[in-house]
Amino acid sequence: MESKQTEIIGLIGHPVGHSMSPVMHNAMFKELGLNYHYVAFDVQPSQLKEAITGVKALQIKGFNVTIPHKVSILPFLDEISEEAKVIGAVNTVVNLDGRLIGYNTDGEGYLQSLIEETGVFLQDKKIVILGAGGAAKGISYAFAKHPIAKLTIVNRDLEKANQLTDVIKNRISVLSTTYEQLNEVLQEVDIVVNTTSIGMYPNINETILPKDWIKANHLISDIVYNPLETKLLKDAKDQGAMTHSGLGMFVHQGALAFKKWTGYDANPNLMKKIVLEKLTT
What we know:
Layout: E1 7-13, H1 21-32, E2 36-42, H2 48-57, E3 62-65, E4 79-80, H3 82-87, E5 92-96, E6 99-103, H4 106-118, E7 126-130, H5 134-143, E8 150-154, H6 158-168, E9 174-177, H7 182-186, E10 191-194, E11 219-222, H8 231-238, E12 242-244, H9 247-262, H10 268-279
Parallel strand pairs: 1-2, 1-3, 4-6, 7-8, 7-10, 8-9, 10-11, 11-12
Antiparallel strand pairs: 3-5, 5-6
């Protein structure tokens, strides 16, 4: 199973110091006896093109893409999967003999986690997604494959929200709005998903929603996984709402990416255990 040369897998984003991806993937490589090593690369937006050139020159086997590069990386890839093309964002790249192929495992990983951890049935649910960036695109597209009642995209930049609704409007009932109308929208919603980085370490006292806007009948989901319980989720628990953290999405999207890079199935339970240990020590 070992190869003579260590294969490098990376993460490009800014910032990346908080990421648990290296710990999670390196533990999985070790478990399976694979001669791979995962490294986090902090890439400024202005350096993205040079970073992609470097990936090819160094023959890096593949990499994850995180904030703020999930959309801006598209012009620098040689090929994009059909799903990533529709979504307009990439979170996983495979280097196939010098050709960089982009995929999006965010949406599928998120839904696997949401359904597995909460047992929620998506049929006829009304869902609000906060944010319209790369993660929001993947998650919206995944929801659009299910018979939900309505999806509302909420974003400060209404034009960005409108662009996202245009992508999926032929699949489900979807509309876009700004945060000024959010409290009104929340009155008739079942699931609220925060896809922004608000509340992420080190800004752990920040939240995207006023506490009194959260109702007991809401399922509040936050894709942030560091900290494990964001202020948004703490407030939701105080309000009697069901909560869902970002750890499961992080693990499942990682497992899907792992398979694309190596051809081997990862163990999501082990990956989750490793990240939990790291975050709670």
